[in-house]
Amino acid sequence: MNEIDLKLTRLRDLMTRKNLDAVVLQRNSSFAWITCGAPSYINTASTTGAAAALITPTERFILTNNIEAPRLEREEGLAAQGWKIRTTGWQETRDLAAELTAGLEVGSDGLMPGTANLGGDISLLRTSLTGPEMERFRALGKLCAEAMDSAIRGVRPGDTEFEIAGRLDRATFARGVQPIVNLIATDNRVMEFRHPLPTNKQLEKYAMLVLCGRKAGLVASITRLVHFGRLSEELRRKAEACMRVDAAFIAGTRPGRTLGEVFKKGEDAYAAAGFPGEWQHHHQGGLAGYEPRESLGRPGAGIVVEVNQAYAWNPSIAGVKSEDTTLVTEAGHEIITQIEGWDTQLVLVEGEPVLRPRILEIT
């Protein structure tokens, strides 16, 4: 069974279980998932795009306007993929989904009036990766790693955070990847803020670069840090502790465990490293896919880890952070955003080796 037929089968099975006659997918992430990577967004800050997918037990439609239809049909190949494209004029106020589903029981992937909210169920479908998606994720991880490596090695004291963000943005787009999260902090801002939007502050010694890159709908996450001059003992101690926590999350993400059980592994690692309770200052990451995080790891979370899923854990201690994207495979964890040639530390977790990146020291 090819990728799109497998996804349609899974979605229609969900419709049967929920006693629904149709499902509307309007989120950018869901649209990319069901079309095997086609973008529906125009405004990249919007959760929903300029097109939606409508699926019934026997038919499937793309609903859009006359501006987007030619691109989706020809450039994205959705007509050849078997979708029936239904359009309105850009100036019209017709609701194609309502017209095509009149009298039917309808579900959707979010808060759509008159429909059953299947957001959580469809998110789980998005995270069960097919073989082709796993390969696309590997390729994306490599591109994000290359973009990060190129950008961070070009950072110099005196650069503003805006300039560093622009360098990371350019390196990412140049590789055909869209940087949907681009966070930069320097010096004291690394210590003070866990989600640092870039500012015009100039770099003195220390910088953190955070990237979430999207291609074909999939999103990979990576963080790296660079320091000019020797690290202080305090910063080195924090970095090593954070690496051990991250390794505990990665090694603990094993099929059959719940996200809550994996979270407990990380929580225990924080305490063992001398930083109990540090996890309360920032989320720790979790299950990835067509959103930067489809579901967060948190105490008691019941979602079960499965083979062929992606995870991006991001433990942090004030001033340091560790983040990569991994795939859960039959053979174990596979880190797909590892930067070739980057200085790493081997961390053993219950006998399992996990490579974590060190802070790049430029002396």
Give the class-level CATH name of the largest domain: Alpha Beta
CATH superfamily assignment of the largest domain? Creatinase/methionine aminopeptidase superfamily
In spatial order, strands of the major sheet run: 4-3-2-1-5-6
Low-confidence segments: none
Describe the structure.
The chain is of the alpha+beta class and 363 residues long. The chain has 2 domains: 125 residues, Creatinase/prolidase N-terminal domain (Creatine Amidinohydrolase, Chain A, domain 1, 3-Layer(aba) Sandwich); 232 residues, Creatinase/methionine aminopeptidase superfamily (Creatine Amidinohydrolase), CATH 3.90.230. The chain has 10 helices and 19 strands. The strands form 5 sheets. The protein has a 6-stranded mixed sheet with strand order 4-3-2-1-5-6. Helix 6 runs antiparallel to helix 7 and helix 9 runs antiparallel to helix 10. The longest helix has 22 residues. The mean pLDDT is 97.
